[in-house]
Amino acid sequence: MPSGLDEDADVEEGPVLSPEELDISNDERVKEIDDGRYVVSSGGPVSNQQSEPAGELESGPSDSPARDEYKTGPNPAIEQNDDPTPLEAPPNDEPEPPAPSDSLDARSVHNWLSDDLQAANSEYAFDITANFGGDVSQQRMVSNDVVTTFETLVMWYAQQVDRNTPVEQVLGILLMEANVPVRYPPKAIRRALKSTSLSADDTIADLMREVKENQGLQL
């Protein structure tokens, strides 16, 4: 065992080389060309005319930085981005839709309704939004019959005024309280009298008694 070898050293590390064995200057395939620089031949002995050395060994540290081909891990020159979304959105050539107008007021609504009703294929039509004691209700009607249109309008209005009272009674009260007097044609009066038990021999007093007992006269 060479001198200076630690007796407790691991035998698997191999034998320790002596300084003479580490000296490569005596090898015929090695030629020293400068202090600490050698030419190593891959074949036979190195000739003096060999101008291009097969390889050089330098005992000193190299001035060139270590190469990074064998680095494991991410390339520091590549920016890491954990966001799966693209950094920049592709350009969009389509024009943006115009922003909605904020000038929606009562006048614009009335104008739209006017155009809409004029475009309806009917002789008569209405579109109403009304407030009844805090409850807003809407009703729309299109028809070619003027009576049907009017009937739908007044019945809807009476129902909104009082839902617990019959429509005909509400309409009678509204017409009575209105400042516009209603004139009924004789045909309506005759039809109303036929609905009672009176005859031509009865008096006006009998008619009033009949109306009071029936709580009104339905025309």
From TrEMBL:
> What Pfam families does the record point to?
DUF7500
What protein is this chain from? DIX domain-containing protein
Organism source for this protein?
Halorientalis brevis
Domain of life according to the entry: Archaea
Native organism taxonomy: Archaea, Methanobacteriati, Methanobacteriota, Stenosarchaea group, Halobacteria
Please note every region of biased composition (Acidic residues): 1-13
- Compositionally biased intervals (Basic and acidic residues): 26-37
Q: Where is this region: Disordered?
A: 1-106
